[in-house]
Write a structure and sequence with these properties.
Number of domains: 1
Number of strands: 8
Bound molecules: inosinic acid, zinc ion
Structural class: alpha/beta
CATH superfamily: Metal-dependent hydrolases
Organism: Fistulifera solaris (Oleaginous diatom)
GO molecular function, one term: metal ion binding
Pfam family, one: A_deaminase
Family: Belongs to the metallo-dependent hydrolases superfamily. Adenosine and AMP deaminases family.
Shape: globular
Catalytic activity: N(6)-methyl-AMP + H2O + H(+) = IMP + methylamine
Length: about 425
């Protein structure tokens, strides 16, 4: 890999030779994943296997069989392999993503396949040293045997089994999602279920919140607001996908969001007025919001997902990093130490993983490893789990980070 292969900020005192040690280092650090959608975590290999098993023809041209092993980004051996993370990436526009989301349930259409994708998702996060995971999913009726309640029971059951049996320790929590492209009645059912599971002694700790997501060009927050309010009254924490698209042409060079580039301004404003516990993406939110809050609402930011869905860069060598440098908010958030949690969003759809997201952020914004470690550590503060679990994990993460940073300094490979 040559230093000038990438425009802009590549130095960071982590030279090209040291960059793969950066990836290895980031792979080892304990991580916190607060923004991942279960069906978006599906391994491409699993999707194809399920399609074959169920005689489903995947109509979308976006699905390509992969020659790689799933999750093989853990197998990076050197600089050239690392280079591969940046190019030959399948472009995924917002529309591409929602075309894909419409196809996945054709293959994940029974309890067995749901169990499989859940277990694989948990393994994949644990393989990247995620120590705390908040997975989110929209409950679905899969078939006559699997209604929305069974769907959630299945996911929760896999989480229980995983925590008890897997040697690496990962604390798993679930956020129940509302799909804004579906009816208010569906949203109401999802809230009822989340509240019922929250009241049940078996799953009370496990279900921690509600999310509003789905195609941002459909539906309206105002319809879902009373249902989310009811969930909040019942003790569930709320995260909203907010300001994901702009009204104006998003592919032009947007450096900052203002009222004119803000996605349906009144909706974004209503979401902010609702004071959710966290915001997802928050790409097109009025500038004044960031500086005017009394309590800064943490943002779940998903670098690769944002580069893809905003189509921030042309499909050229190094485009992920260059794309990220065009992100409408990230640089300012980092400069102002805005509360952030770095997420993968849909690792199966965007061909990413938690290590890669941190690595991209380091590379695009010249962050040194101690900054990225602090960012990860702080993001545990924004978790929806109970305080005792949070404090325990914060202590564990802090200790492990310190040890890793010390041993890394000893080796002198990545600058602290
Ligand atoms: P599921 O809820 O487990 O089925 O995960 C996939 C679903 O998550 C999609 O159908 C969308 O509703 C939602 N989702 C995934 N990625 C995004 C995103 O970037 N924006 C909004 N919604 C999303
Ligand atoms: Zn999302």
């Amino acid at each position: 890999m040559k230093e000038n292969d990438f425009k802009g900020n590549y130095h960071n005192n982590i030279g090209p030779r040291a960059s793969s040690s950066l990836y290895f280092f980031l792979q080892k650090i304990p991580k916190v994943e607060l923004h991942a959608h279960l069906n978006g975590c599906i391994r491409p290999g699993t999707l194809f296997a399920l399609a074959e098993e169920k005689c489903v023809t995947l109509s979308s041209h976006h699905f390509q069989p992969t020659k790689k092993n799933d999750n093989d980004q853990t197998l990076i051996q050197g600089d050239d392999d690392e280079d591969a993370l940046l190019y030959n990436v399948q472009p995924r526009s917002l529309q591409d993503c929602f075309d894909m989301f419409a196809e996945i349930p054709r293959c994940v259409n029974d309890v067995d396949s749901l169990r499989r994708i859940t277990l694989e998702a948990l393994h994949d996060f644990a393989a990247h040293n995620v120590v705390y995971l908040e997975l989110r999913t929209t409950p679905k009726v899969l078939n006559a045997e699997c209604d929305k309640r069974t769907y959630l029971e299945t996911v929760l059951g896999v989480m229980n089994e995983f925590e008890q049996s897997y040697t690496r320790s990962m604390t798993c929590r679930l956020i129940v999602a509302i799909d804004r492209s579906l009816s208010e009645e569906e949203a109401c059912e999802n809230v009822d279920l989340a509240i019922a599971f929250r009241k049940s002694t078996l799953s009370a700790d496990r279900i921690v919140g509600m999310d509003l997501g789905g195609n941002p060009t459909r539906g309206d927050f105002h319809c879902f607001r009373p249902h989310l309010e009811r969930a909040r009254q019942a003790g569930l924490r709320i995260t909203l996908h907010c300001g994901e698209v702009a009204d104006c042409d998003m592919t032009s060079n947007i450096t900052h969001a203002d009222e004119t580039s803000c996605s349906t301004y009144s909706e974004v404003q209503a979401m902010l007025d609702f004071h959710p516990d966290r915001l997802g993406h928050a790409l097109f939110v009025p500038n004044t919001f960031w500086s005017s809050q009394e309590r800064r609402i943490p943002v779940e930011t998903c670098p690769t997902s944002n580069v893809m869905t905003l189509e921030l860069a042309q499909h050229v060598r190094g485009h992920l990093m260059e794309g990220l440098q065009q992100h409408p908010q990230l640089r300012e958030w980092l400069d102002t130490q805005y509360p952030l949690a770095i997420g993968t969003d849909d690792p199966g759809v965007f061909d990413t993983n938690p290590t890669k997201e941190l690595w991209l952020l380091c590379r695009a914004f010249d962050l040194n490893v101690s900054i990225i470690c602090r960012l990860v550590e702080q993001s545990m503060e924004y978790a929806f789990c109970d305080e005792a679990t949070k404090r325990r994990l914060q202590e564990d993460i802090h200790e492990e980070m310190l040890l890793l940073l010390q041993s890394n300094q000893g080796k002198g490979s990545c600058e602290d």
